[in-house]
Amino acid sequence: MKNLLANRVKTLTPSSTLAITAKAKELKEQGIDVIGLGAGEPDFNTPQNILNAAIDSMEKGLTKYTPAGGLPVLKKAIIDKLQRDNNLTYKPNEVIVGVGAKHILYTLFQVILNEGDEVIIPIPYWVSYPEQVKLAGGVPVYVEGTSEQGYKITADQLRAAVTDKTKAVIINSPSNPSGMIYSRDEIAEIAAVAEEKDILIVSDEIYEKLVYNGIEHFSIAQLSDAVKARTIVVNGVAKSHSMTGWRIGYAAGDADIINSMTDLASHSTSNATTTAQYATVEAYNGPQDAVEEMRQAFESRLEKIYPQLSAIPGFNVLKPQGAFYLLPDVSEAMAHTGYDSVDAFAAGILTEANVAVIPGSGFGAPTTMRLSYATSLDLLEEAVRRIDSFVKSKWQD
């Protein structure tokens, strides 16, 4: 039989989380008490007012197709949110609603990249950035944000990485997996390079509402009209309103790019789920108390679990400023416990300590692992106790 697979999918790298996730599920099915710290979603239900709005829309018969780029009433809610929260002004033709921020990013790269175009991706990165770039025929160019730099890249690094093939740079702040945030000065310097080199900025702001210790999120698009014109802001309600399964994300930016994304969506998804769109209208237009309550809960967990995790031998942890992840560098712990890869180390923690963590190899940071604190404090503290015992039981000087 002829080869049935297209070349584009042959380049895909399987998710490094799959093996750990599958093994954790297998152990749980065997009745083993596994604590999962791999979750990339809040452990809160969607707020009740949003649920009610979804039910109300269905009962009113609002269950048909919508425009491919999103309901006009939802675009208005997004535009109002961007003005209210970020002091950014957009028109309806500069906004598209998609099937989650992941689909928005996929569609964006499909419409801006030609074969061989380069996209600069800071390390550590969210696992899907490189794969989406490759699927669009682009070339991921990696720039390492070291732990000494707070897992962020500098303007000088960006400038050095730009070539005549560079189309865009991705800035994810707050970051998955590090939880770190670019300061206003840092993003101003990066924006200056983007203007100097005439490249697009893809600003992934999905964790915007989950920031801690008095730090404020600042969108790179807020710097100036010129920076805004070359920035595509990507966001959604998955993390901010605990609506991961509703699959609603959006992009705001250049009208030509947004129009092309809308055209592509019309041939791929038709529209984001109608009921979810009406729920998102309420998410943005309704009370925001639940958003703040969730943020405070995550901050409280972080304050309690961070020092406990940092006390584990060989775990070097930068305190995150946002999102709900901790990204310890465990190279020292691996060296003293006999593991030669973070994947093997994470597998050992799962099978012997019964805690599921995500190896950092999938984020381009193979000496780290990601732990989500989107679970109860009791489980978090028990997970840290198990990991601590595991490391100490194997430690060799």
Q: Please, could you describe this protein's structure?
A:
The protein has helices at 7-10, 17-29, 48-59, 72-86, 100-112, 128-135, 155-161, 184-197, 225-229, 255-266, 274-285, 289-310, 331-337, 342-353, 377-394; strands at residues 35-36, 95-98, 118-123, 139-144, 166-172, 200-204, 231-236, 249-252, 325-326, 355-356, 358-359, 369-372. The longest helix has 22 residues, at 289-310. The mean pLDDT is 96. The chain has 15 helices and twelve strands. Helix 5 (100-112) packs parallel to helix 6 (128-135), helix 5 packs across helix 10 and helix 7 (155-161) runs parallel beside helix 8. With 397 residues, it is α/β, with parallel strands linked by helices.
Count of helix runs: 15
The helix/strand series, from N terminus to C terminus, equals HHEHHEHEHEHEHEHEEHHHEHHEEEH
Helix-strand category: alpha/beta
Provide the spatial order of strands within the biggest beta sheet. 2-8-7-6-5-3-4
Radius of gyration: 21 Å
Question: Quick one: biggest sheet?
Answer: 7 strands, mixed
Instruction: Report the uncertain regions.
Output: none
Our estimate of the beta-strand percent is: 5-15%
Average of pLDDT: 96
Number of strands: 12
Q: How far apart are the termini?
A: 56 Å
Helix content: 40-55%
Question: What overall geometry do the principal axes of the alpha carbons give?
Answer: globular
Protein name: Aminotransferase
InterPro entries: Aminotransferase_I/II_large, AspAT/PAT-like, NHTrfase_class1_PyrdxlP-BS, PyrdxlP-dep_Trfase, PyrdxlP-dep_Trfase_major, PyrdxlP-dep_Trfase_small
GO molecular function, one term: transaminase activity
Family: Belongs to the class-I pyridoxal-phosphate-dependent aminotransferase family.
